[in-house]
Design brief:
two-stranded antiparallel ribbon; 58% helix; 9 helices; mainly alpha
Length: 238
């Protein structure tokens, strides 16, 4: 899995996981099955109704063709960069800076999709993604977007962290500079110092973390370390 670096509005640099070609192909196949299921159901219903209600060729074409034609544009626009297939694979369309694309961005991707995927059977998209270091097909390059993998590997499952509720507001976006192994060390050192009642170690730990992520704060050393652990968990799950 390749990565690329984004910089947030707080000037924090974060390594972002790019969706692999295989993940995107699987997401596409899931979406294709949904579209095919829709067509099968609609055709079955309309076949049963033709004896009773006459359907014009134009109306039939709209009912059959328009939803599949607009599927990806509508889904990504209203599902925050995801289709059903992308959501199943935990993929999402984002801007290169990690922010949510505007409708125009989704529109550009969709227009290029007609050529890259629908006309060329995905060949152009696959080759472009493989050659591009940021997981972009032509539509992504034009729209300045990419598709990321949100299945983030984290060591937090091995570490008992503090519980955070859904309304938790992180204080230090700079914590995204730290790695899972850094947090494991911080947590282990902090817990041992707590057990021994050695506050001097917590002070030294807090000062080291502050220097590492370039933070100045009025919080006590103990509160600061707790906040760092909570913030990192927040950014790891959002």
């Amino acid at each position: 899995m390749s990565h690329f670096q984004i910089e947030t509005a707080q000037n924090v640099k974060i390594q972002q996981s790019v969706a692999t070609v295989w993940d995107r192909i699987l997401a596409y196949l899931i979406d294709l099955m949904i579209v095919m299921a829709y067509l099968f159901i609609v055709i079955a219903i309309m076949s049963g109704l033709t004896d009773v209600t006459p359907f014009s060729g134009y109306a039939s074409s709209l009912v059959l063709g328009l939803p599949p034609f607009l599927y990806h544009l509508v889904m990504e626009t209203f599902m925050n960069g995801q289709s059903v297939g992308k959501a199943s694979m935990k993929l999402r369309v984002v801007n290169l800076d990690g922010s949510k694309p505007q409708f125009f961005g989704y529109l550009i991707r969709w227009l290029f999709r007609l050529i890259e995927i629908s006309v060329a059977s995905g060949a152009i998209a696959i080759v472009t993604i493989l050659l591009n270091g940021k997981g972009q097909r032509l539509g992504d390059i034009a729209a300045k977007t990419t598709v990321i993998n949100e299945r983030r590997k984290t060591g937090f499952k091995k570490i008992p962290l503090y519980e955070i509720d859904d309304n938790y507001k992180p204080l230090y976006p700079q914590v995204a500079q730290l790695k899972d192994q850094d947090l494991r060390k911080i947590k282990v050192i902090y817990d041992k110092a707590q057990m021994k009642g050695d506050h001097s170690i917590i002070i030294q730990l807090a000062e080291k973390v502050k220097r590492q992520i370039h933070v100045e704060t009025e919080q006590s050393s103990q509160t600061f370390i707790k906040t760092i652990l909570k913030d990192y968990q927040y950014y790891s799950t959002h």
